[in-house]
Amino acid sequence: MNTLAPLFRHSVGFDRFDDWLETALRSDQSNGYPPYDIIRDSDGTYRVVMAVAGFSRADLDITVQENLLRISGKPAEEDSEQRTWLHRGIARRGFERSFRLADHVQVEGATMEDGLLIVHLSRVVPEAHKPRQIPIGEPH
User: Fold this and answer.
1) Each residue of 5-57: pLDDT tens digit?
2) Which of 52-79 are b and which e, b meaning 16 or more Cβ less than 10 Å from the residue's Cβ?
3) Which of 28, 34, 65, 73 has the most CB atoms less than 10 A away?
4) Residues near 35 by Cβ (< 8 Å), separated by ≥ 6?
5) pLDDT of 88-122, one tens digit each?
6) CB atoms inside a 10 Å sphere around CB 49
7) Looking at beta carbons, which pairs linking 107-115 to residues 24 or more positions away fall under 8 Å?
8) Nearest of 85, 50, 55 to residue 69 by alpha carbon
């Protein structure tokens, strides 16, 4: 069964197929790290949930410029002389992920919980851009 999930991977709040297609066709240099989800809640808000195990709040940077949300992580330097790693399975490499936001989608804030970074987004459409009913009048 084919799914349209790849079309939604790097876009939040788009309602037009051409925007989804353009985003899906862009190459993804991140190799899937770190994994993330994009969730649309029933009230029209969105969440980008990213697995950032091993990163502290100070290691993460979230910026928004125009319609681009950028999340990056740079792990703190560790004192390797005091540690002997017997197994190192938690990836702590630097990363940068970008998400193109649709018009009127705003970043409301971010939280961290249980190793997950949650960026809260909402769509705020100005009254002038909302659909309005046009009455059909009598001919002139």
Assistant:
1) 555 566 676 555 445 445 554 545 557 899 999 999 888 899 999 999 989 99
2) beebeeeebebeeeeeebebebebeeee
3) 73
4) 50, 51
5) 888 888 999 999 998 889 999 999 999 999 999 99
6) 15
7) 107/62, 107/64, 107/69, 108/45, 110/62, 112/52, 112/57, 112/60, 115/51, 115/52, 115/53, 115/54
8) 50
pLDDT at 4: 56
Residue pointed to by tokens 């990363």 = 95
